[in-house]
Amino acid sequence: MPAPPLEPITLTGTHVVLAPLEADDVDALYAAVGAPVLWALGSTPMRDRHDMAAYVERQLSSEHDLSWKTLDARTGEIIGCTNLHQWSAHDRSGEIGTTRIAVHRQGTGANTEAKYLQLRYAFETLSAHRIGFRTDTRNERSQAALRKIGATFEGVHRRHMVLHDGYVRDSAWFSITDEEWPGVKQRLESLLASGA
User: pTM above the 0.90 mark?
Assistant: First the structure.
């Protein structure tokens, strides 16, 4: 039996809230995560507000993606964005991708809680079998964060994609399965409780 269809939903945590991305979020999102360094290892260029508007438009037009803005739970300020990418209700699988957190909020637990909220939604509401992650093999910080939350390294897709600057990227793939989710959930909750 297929999983429920993707529908915009707000996911609320202690430190962050994931709210559905909207067309009028462009300026606030660009202010929060428009720094080119945050997009340097991805396929999307981020040179100016126009690039952010194009990114938001692409996210909102995809029927297989559910995109969120990441908000500070206390202030409501946009501090990032993320999405559930390439969701297949039939296979009950997808990826968490396009995650960006404002430079001043990195290392604060905002990204950890955002991942926790997405994974809990995917496994406990959408009945996911598998949630994957892929990152540039040069992005050691991202790979360390995925290992920290308990994702399993699956391997490298060599020369997997061409980035906006023409670089041909190798992608490291990680995943979490429904069988692993209870342990990963416990690990994430412990990390969040410790402030990690």
Answer: yes
